Amino acid sequence: MITAISLVVVPLLAGFSFLFIDKYLAKFRKLFILGTGLITLLLSINLLIQVSNHPLIYNLGNWKEGIGISLIIDPLGGILAVLIAFISFIIIAYSLSYIKNHQLKYYTLLFLLIAGMLGMVLTGDLFNLYVFFEITSIISYVLVAFNKEDISFEASFKYMIIGSISGILILLAIILIYQSTGTLNLAQLVIAARNIPIQLKKVIAVLILIGFGAKFAVVPLHTWLPDAHSTAPSPISALLSGVVIKVFLYALLRVLFILFRIEELLALDFNNLFVYSGVITLFTGHLLAYRQDKLKRLLAYSSIAQIGYILIGVGLFNAAGLEGAIYHVINHAVVKGVLFMTAGIFILKSKKKNIADLKGIAYQLPLSSFIFTISALNIVGLPPFNSFISKWLLLHAALKADFIIPASSILIGSLISLSYYLRIITLLYSKVKEELTSIKVPYQLQLAPLLLSLFYLPLALFPNFLLLLIKKAPLFLLKTINYYNILLGGEEWIGLFG
Amino acid sequence: MNPGIIYLLGAGVLFFTKDKLRQSIAIALSIIAIIAIYTLPVSQGLTIPFLDFNLILLKVDKISKLIGLAFAFFGLCSTIYASKLADRKYYTLSQLYIGSSIAILFVGDFFSFYICWELMTISSYFLIFNNEQPITKQTSYYYFIMQMVGAVSLLWGILLQYTQTGSLELTSIEYGLPFFLLAVGIKLAFIGLHTWLPQNYSNVPFHISVLLSAYTTKIGVYALYRLLSGTKLLGYAGIITAILGVLFALKQTKVRKLLSYHIISQIGYMITAISVGTALGASGGIVHLINNVLYKGLLFMVIGVIIYRTGKEDLIELGGLAKKLPLLTFYAIVAALSIAGVPFFSGHISKLVIKKAVHDQILSWGLYLAGIGTSLSFLKVIYFAFFRELDEEVELNERSDKAMLFSMGLITSILLLIGLKPHLLTDLLALDIKLHYFSLKYIWKGVEPIIIAIIIFKVAHDLIAPHHHQARNMDIYPLLARGINYLSKALSYIHNGDLGRYLLWVISTLLILWIKLLSA
C-alpha cells in the first residue's frame, strides 16, 4: 500500500532535497542520485508484484474516496511504473557522466519529471491526473531548453505553445466531466459516466483526443516533437521519446475507456479513427525520417512512426491488439533509449550533429557503434530482436481483426525504416583516412546503453514471461467494470485468474 | 538439437579467440557439425512453446539431412579455403551465416523459418559490406533492401497462412501464394528479381563470394521445395530463368560475374525440376542443388585462387594459366565438366534425373538449350583462362595457396565420387526408379550438347571471345526508391517550421473531429 504513494513521493522529495545535498553534502551527490533512481526502481517492482495479483487502491490520508486524493493501480499502471522507473534509472546512470554543467538544475528537474510521470500512471482521479500532466509537460519544456542554444529555445517554445493548448483542452474536458457527474474519481466515473448525455460525451471525447493526442504526437499534431526531441540533451531525448509520450497515450486510453464502453466506441467508429490515424502517423514518421540529415532528428521522426504502430494495436480495441501495443511500448522505450544514448555518445565525440559527419566513427567507438547497429536493426523489426516479437503480435492482431491495410503498412513501414537506418549503419562503418577528433569519451558513458541493450535478447527469446503480466492489463483497461471493482476491494475480477 | 546451433554458438566463441586457435576451432566446429548432421536420426523432433504457438526447432527428413550435409561439408571447405585471409569479422559472420542456413533446413514451423531467413540476410549483409571494396557500400545496401522486400513479403504470407489456417506448421502453403512467390523469387534470384546477385557476388573479396555462392540462393530453392512444390506454372519461369541466365553469362568477361549469372541459370533448372511436383522431380532438383553447391563453389574457389595469385579476374587479361597452375587447371576442368553435365561427372546425374522427371516438351527443349549454353560458357572460361596463349604472359605472385588447393581437392574428390558412383548420393534419397546412368543412350544424351557447344565455339569464335562491351543498366528498382524520396521531399516541404501553420493544423484537426463526431 504505502509503496504506491512513496513511488511518487521519493523522486519528488529527492528532487527538492537535492538542493541541500548539492550544497552541503556534495560528496554524496552521485550516491544520492543513483540511490534515488534505484530505490524508485525497486519500489516500482515491488508495486508491480503486488498489483499483478491484487490491483489496489490507496487513499491519501485515509480520506474517503471521492473526497481525498486516491491512487488506483491496476496491472497496466504497474507495468508502466516499472518501465518509467527502469528507463529513468538507466538515464540517470547515463546522465552522471554525460551532464557536466548545471547539474543541480538538471537533476532537480529530472526527478520532478520522473515523479510527474509516475503520478500520471498511478493516480486514481482526474484532477491529479491533470496536475501530474502539467508537471510532466512543464518540466519537459524546461528540459528541452536545457542546452540554452537558439534552436532549443525555439523548440521548447513551440512545444510549450502546442502543449498549453492541449493542457487547456484537457482541463476543459475535466471541467465538463466534473460538471456532469460530480465526481473526479476514475473508478467511480466508470459508473457515473453512463449518465453523461451522449452529445456532451462526444465533446469531451474530442477534447481529450486532441489534448492528449498533441502530447503523444499523433499526426498532424506531431509538429513539436522532432524539434523538441532532437534539441534536448541526449538523455532527456531518450526519456522523452522512450517513456514520456507513452505516458500521455496511457492517460488518453485510461480516460477514454472509462468514459465510453467498447460498444459505444465502436459505434462512433473510434477504432477506425485510431487505426487509420496510426497508419498516417507511421507513414508520415517514416517518410520524414527518410530524408533527415541530423541523427537525433531522424530518431525523433522514427519515434513518431513507432507511435503509429502502437496506435494501430490500441485501435483494435481488443485484448490481442492491446497486448501487442503494450509490448511494443516496452520494446520501443528500451530500444529508443539506447539509440538516443548512443547518438549522444556520437555527438559528444564528433561535436557534430549531421549523420554525414559521423563517417567512420565505428573505428573509434566500436562498442557504441555496435550497440547502435543492433538497436537500429532491432527497431526496424528484424528478428531475432525484441521489436520483432511485438510487431508480430501487432500484425497478427490487426490481421485477425480484418484490418488488412494497417497490417500491411506495418510491414511497409519496416521496409522504409530499414532504408534509412541502413544508411546510417553504412556510414558508421565506412573507413576514413584521418581520425575524427581526439575527444575522449568517458568509458562509463557506454555502460548505460550497454546494460539496456542486454535486455534485447531476453525480451525476444522469453516473451511469455512478460506477456503473462501484460495479458492482465486489458482486463482492467477494456473491461472497466473490473476497474470499478477495485474500489470495492473486491476480488471478483471478470475473466481474470482463470 | 538443431545442428545450426553448433555454428551459432560457435560464432560467439570465434569472436573471442585469436589466430591459430580460432582457425582450428572453426574447422573443428565444422567437422562436429558434419558428424552431428550425419548422425541425426530421421523424423526426430523438438518442440517448444512460444507466445501462443509451438516452435518446432527440429524436424529431420531425408532431404533436409542431405542438403544439410552438403552445406556443412562446403562450410568446412570454405573455412579451410579462407584460412589465410579470414579475420575476426569473417569468422563470426560466416559461422552465423552457415549456421542460420543449416538451421533453416531443420526447423518445422514458419516462425523459426522466418527468423533463420532473416538471420541469413543480416549476416550476409555484413559479410558483403566491406571497406576494402568501397563499391560494396552501395551493393550491400541494395542487397539488404531487396532481401528485406522478400522477407517482408514472406512474413506477410506467413501471417496470411497463419490467420487463415491457425497453424504455423511448415507445409505447402494454401494462402498468400503471390507473397511467397515474391519472397522465394528474390531469395533464389529469379530472373527479373536477380539484380542483387551479380553485382554483389562479383564485388566482394573472393573468399566471401565463395561462401555466398553456396547458401543464399540454395535456401531459396529449398523454400521453393518446402512451400511451393508442384506449382506447375513455375516450370516455364524456371526455363526462362535458365536460358536468360546463361545468355547473360555468355556476355560476361569478368569470371565471377559470369559465374553469378550461372548460379541464376542453374537455379532455373532446379525450379523447373521442383515445379513438376513429383518425388522424382523434387529429388532431381535437390540432387542438382547439392551438385551445384559443390561445383559452383569449386569454380568460385578456382577464380579466387586466380585472383589471389594474379590479381586479375577478367578473361580479356587472363590466359595460359594451365602451364603455371596445373593442379588448379585440373580442378577447374573437373568443375566445368561437372556443370556441363558430361557423363561420369556429377552434373550428368542430376541433369539426367531432371530430364527423366520433366515430361513437358517445351521444358525439355528449354533444358536442352540451357545445357548447350552452359557448356559453351564453360568452354569459354576454361579455354580463355587456362589454354589460350597470350603474347605477354600473366605474372604470378609467390603467395602460398596450399590451404586453398587442399580444400578444393576435398570438393573435387567428392565431385568425382558422385560422378562415378551416383548411387551413393541417390540412395540417400531413396529414389524409386533405377536409372542406368552410364548406358550408351544416356551417355550420348549427355555428350550431345557439348559437341554442339564445341561446334558453335569453333564457328562463332570471334563472337564469343571475350571483348569489352557497353554495360547497360536496366535495373528499374531504384525508381521505387525515387518514389519514396519524392514523397518524403513533399512531406518535408510542408513541414516548414512555421508555428502558425502547425497551430492551424491542430485547430483544424480539432474542428474536423468535432464536426465529424457531432454529426455522427
TrEMBL record, chain A:
The chain crosses the membrane at residues 6-24, 31-49, 69-94, 106-123, 129-147, 159-178, 203-225, 237-261, 273-291, 298-319, 325-348, 360-383, 403-429, 450-470. GO terms for molecular function: NADH dehydrogenase (ubiquinone) activity. One of its GO terms (biological process) is ATP synthesis coupled electron transport. GO terms for cellular component: plasma membrane. Keywords: Cell membrane, Membrane, Transmembrane, Transmembrane helix. It comes from the Bacteria. It is a multi-pass membrane protein. It is found in: Cell membrane; Membrane. Its main location: membrane. Residues 124-416 form the NADH:quinone oxidoreductase/Mrp antiporter transmembrane domain. InterPro entries: CPA3_Na-H_Antiporter_D, NADH_UbQ_OxRdtase, ND/Mrp_TM. Belongs to the CPA3 antiporters (TC 2.A.63) subunit D family. This is Multicomponent Na+:H+ antiporter subunit D. It comes from Orenia metallireducens. The lineage of its organism: Bacteria, Bacillati, Bacillota, Clostridia, Halanaerobiales.
From TrEMBL, chain B:
The chain crosses the membrane at residues 25-51, 63-82, 102-129, 141-163, 175-197, 204-227, 233-250, 259-280, 286-308, 328-350, 362-383, 403-422, 442-464, 502-519. InterPro entries: ComplexI-like_HydComp, NADH_UbQ_OxRdtase, ND/Mrp_TM. It is a multi-pass membrane protein. The keyword 4Fe-4S does not apply. It is found in: Cell membrane; Membrane. Its main location: membrane. GO terms for molecular function: NADH dehydrogenase (ubiquinone) activity; oxidoreductase activity. This is Multisubunit sodium/proton antiporter, MrpD subunit. It comes from Orenia metallireducens.
